[in-house]
Amino acid sequence: MEANVESGFNVRKLLVFIAAIIVVLVIGSAASRVVLNRAATNNDAPIFTPDYSLSNIKADDLFVVADSAQLLPGSHVQADAALIGKNNVTVEGLVDGDLTVMGGSIQLGKEALVKGDAVLIGNKVTLSGQINGELNVIADTLTINPDALLKGSLDICATHFINEQNLDVPIHKCGADELAGWQSLRDGSLATKVISGGEFSLSSFIFNGLFAMGLAALSGLIVTIFPRRFGHMTEAIRTLPRRASRIGCLTQIFAVALVLGLGILIAVLPPLGLILLPILALLFIPLGILFVIGWMTMALLAGDWLLRRFAGRSTPPMLTVIAGSMGLFILWTLVGMLPYGPILSLVWAALIGTGGLGAAVMTRVGTRSPSRSYFVQG
Question: Phi then psi for 334, rounded to 5 degrees?
Fold first, then answer.
């Protein structure tokens, strides 16, 4: 009888959950139509294209990411313009606001007129035309032609400078780090360097160590306040490790699937994906809390093992979780020093947290014992 009642209750909860999903999809679909209708009349959205050229008037801000971009003679941007070109960027038109350009080769033609400030970052920069505001340049080679009119202050960083005017232009040499920094950002090698890891920084180790000590102290306080709940979760890992690991693994797969699904939805139907983004963020708040609680549970088990192994005795939960947290932090730091350390650190954190996350889910954050028995009549 009790089993039938519980089964009926679970069915009702499932129906309510399905109904909530249907309502969200209906509201999102209706809202997406409104957003799409407004987006159809919005002219300041970012533009991603292999090649871009403007020959008429642009009344709003212009933001372009392309292999090559051109503002042709007669073009007029009545607001700010930002152009990112992998290869070439040419400006021959009028920009009423500020101009920001990042590319391989950048050229401001004779008819170019920038009424605001200009920021130019590239391998080779050639200046003609007129710039009324402040000019900032970072380049390997900078050429200022005789017909260039620069009315504002100058901040120029270039390795090679060709000045075809008689004016004295202040300039300082770009260091290798400055040039390599923006170049790695443009060609994507910065991401490769970050992912590869394998370096040790004493300052970051000290900062992360202090941060880990703060988290360890917070973990000790939380474990002291809720000892019974953490006792249930540690019992779940000790008695049912495979089940806890399976549940934790499935929960993490569910979270990754949600992120991938939202990414695909944003790519296929951006308005609906952006509408559902806050809902996903709200869903990840409890998942994140569960993961942190799972990590505290694993730190409690790790601390108990360490203290029994090296001290030969058990200690109060507060000291146990602090010892375990610091031990896991040291291991996490050592993993991060390996080649591709950032990736290995994330994988290691996910694997360690799997059991704790599963224990938190299966015990409902420690509110029920894993060895709880059920009475079924008959």
Answer: -65, -40
